[in-house]
Amino acid sequence: MAEYDADVPAGIVMTSMEAVVGWLRKSSFWPLTMGLACCAIEMISYGGPRADAARWGHEVFRSSPRQADLMIVSGRVSQKMAPVVRQLYDQMPNPKWVISMGACASSGGIFNNYAIIQGCDHIIPVDVYLPGCPPSPDMLIDAVFKLREQIQHWPLLGHMAEVEKAKESIALAAPSTLEMPTTTPSKEIGR
Amino acid sequence: MSDQTPSAGSGDKAPERSGGDAGIEQVPAPNPVMEVRSGMWGGASGSSDTSGYNGLVSVVEFPGDSSRPYGGWFDAVADRMAQLVPGFSAGLTLVDRGEITFFVRPEKLLELVSALRDDAQLRFECCAALTCVHYPQMTGQQVHVVYNLLSYTHNRRIRLEVALADPADQHPHLPSVVSVYPHADYQEREAWDMFGVIFDGHPALTRILMPDDWVGHPQRKDYPLGGIPVEYKGHVTPPPDERRSYNS
Amino acid sequence: MSEQTRSGFRTSAGGPGSPGAAGREEFLAQGGDWSDIVAESAERGDETVVVNFGPSHPSTHGVMRLIMELDGETITSIRPGIGFLHTGIEKNMEYRTWTQGVTFVTRCNYVANFFNEAVYCLAVEKLLGITDEIPERAQILRVMIMEVNRISNHFTGVGAGALELNATSVQEVCLREREICLEFNQAVTGLRMNNAWIRPGGTATDLPEDGLDRLRDLIKRMSDNIPEIDQFFTANPIFRSRTQGAGYMDLAGCMAMGCTGPVLRSTGLPWDLRKKQPYSGYQDYDFEVCTADSCDAYGRYLVRLHEMFESIKILKQCLKRLTETQGAPHMVADKRIAWPAELSIGPDGQGNSYEHIKHIMGESMEALIHHFKLVTEGFKVPAGQVYQAVEAGAGELGCHLVSDGGTRPYRCHLRDPGFIHVQSIPAMCEGALLPDVVATLASLDPVMGGVDR
Lengths: 191, 248, 453
Fold this sequence. Notes:
The complex is a heterotrimer.
Chain A: H1 17-26, E1 31-32, H2 38-47, E2 70-74, H3 82-91, E3 97-101, H4 102-107, E4 128-130, H5 137-152, H6 157-173
Chain B: E1 33-38, E2 41-42, E3 57-61, H1 74-84, E4 89-96, E5 99-104, H2 109-118, E6 126-134, E7 143-151, E8 156-164, E9 173-175, H3 184-195, E10 198-200, E11 230-232, E12 235-237, E13 245-246
Parallel strand pairs in B: 5-8, 9-10
Antiparallel strand pairs in B: 1-3, 2-13, 4-5, 6-7, 7-8, 11-12
Chain C: E1 9-11, E2 27-29, H1 34-44, E3 49-53, E4 65-71, E5 74-81, H2 89-93, H3 98-105, H4 113-128, H5 136-164, H6 168-189, E6 198-199, E7 202-203, H7 211-233, H8 237-243, H9 251-257, H10 262-265, H11 273-276, H12 297-324, H13 354-363, H14 365-377, E8 384-391, E9 396-403, E10 411-415, H15 417-422, H16 425-429, H17 434-444, H18 448-452
Antiparallel strand pairs in C: 1-2, 3-4, 4-5, 6-7, 8-9, 9-10
Helix pairs in contact in C: 3-4, 4-5, 5-6, 5-12, 5-17, 6-7, 7-12, 12-17, 13-14
């Protein structure tokens, strides 16, 4: 990223703004306390003494979405919780990232039924999908480091708005569970 | 409240069936039929049965023995219940796997649970689990509301079951037991939410687990599971309730 | 912005947070200057303020929502809103075999998952009528894993409760020790959480080769380190002033609200299903039922703390019995029910034992058919219904199970103690102060996965 230029005095490194901001951003995550289900317990362990997320400046989970920039959707998102998750996401300031933690958040997992959103990417754009039921804290560490890698190369300013918009439109175009085609004709659902 | 006095044969152990004293010989009514099935395959998918057993008809009855004596403390409890609330029974009492189930007439339910809670010989202080079971095949009694009662005083458990008709155009009604068991509040709300049973007299019968604007009562048998087909490497697996499956 | 009022209150009709609210006015604080909000509130002349607490709040013990009406800092009314984690587990199980049902129930109360598995399997066994045929070693293994789970459950209960009261160090200690319990779980069952290890008929696997040593280490470690929480917390004046008198509920209240477990035992009633209605051979173990007499959040903490010590006591007895029964079967002898294969670590990291695969694929056609039938169709359970209860970490965990004689549960209902306890929050909190709510909630220790199922 740094370029050498003979005209620049010694002691000055030229680099792109994106690289510096990306480096700063990736070293200071502020995750949201977005605990939902089983994965939330492993997410707590991730911040606990064994996995010790403090090692990469990550241990302080923010309770307010306005102070957070990383949402770890940890667990199954129910139809009732989905509007809440979306509202929390909307309340987070840009730039923001989402890790879909666990099989349920990523795809509905074993709960392929009426109550669970079949993947939280139906309601929010997801940056990293993390498999597992639940993923161990080690796997979450891996996911976070993969995300850090992405953030290092994150676009800035006007470019960022474009990327965000593209991601958002993909998420909005994804059909909701109820709109998805089924193999058999839809049956009468109660009264 | 007196302290717990678990008498012999109480708890969840099956009381020994004492030898039947030659009292009144009653021909017990046949146990109600839960379901009648045919064939080996099918399930919700409606696919054809290729097993060769498609003519097979199996009748599933409620198991249990409804003849006196019930054994152990069951008889004493049943007698006391009948004494305090005559005519509470819907005509069936089943003893099965060491547990006793009283089928109760809905109009007598409230009176019965008050007696069950307050009478010193009964003292079922806790409605441990209130739930519903939906038997769509049992015409006239499709929805069963089940009360699992617990007595701390005597360390006993009994089960009350109320069978309700489920007409197509309206919800089944049942008196609420919240006035007797305050902790039945959420349990009745869950039963309403999941099975559409209206508990008359409940202080605030609203949905509890599903969102307020949800349509239908998800745990009824006529409500589909609601899964979506899952694609993996080009192969699509339908949701479990739409798959071809064993029928027995 | 006609709808946006001066102070930042927004009139919302059918917004994302208010499903079906069309035609009804709803006010949401969407930012703005706080003094303006207060001024507008004063203008409206309301004496009380309605505060929404949750469902995404670090102190609500999960995705629970509390709608509180506050007069100053005194709660005049509080209503819990639950269902944000409703997973349809009970319905989903109706489409899976009896054995697969364990996989679902274990995900209900994910902090105390072995109790879910145990109560479900005990209910299935009762339906099958094989309660007396469960091998002794399987019962000891179940007791062992349940008591380890009780310890880790109380670690979560006490630790999360402490965190919610802002005692971070206690949470760190609890997490550290819980990690040891999870490590033990992983060594025994292969998984840290959501284990599905207790199966109808016994347990999925026996102890690993070093299982007894691990259990010995675990007992030693827990005996050494649980007192640390005691030292941290029990006499701590801040903790005591936060919890003593908070969430008061006496015996009559517990009877009315159906409270069980530590809540009931904190009133002095030694009601423990392990003693009163023993299962899995608990009648043969020597342990005390822990009680307190303060009827408050502090009493419940003491009960939990003492129960951890009692669990260690039970674990020591398990260790002795497991040493004695080495090599004994851990699954029911009836091959129509028992899972056909031992699980072992294969080349892919997990799977059925190599010997078994060799047997069914290369030696015996009948064994293959049997394996196929049992694994795909599953065993049949005679028609009927049962109710089984165990003493979980939070109280009476019940399972009402109905079979129609088929290979899948016809209906399974879990009576989670948390679900029952949540409805007693108004009785415990109304009239109290706002900070007491957090202490009360933590003392009930509801796990929303179990509450909402």
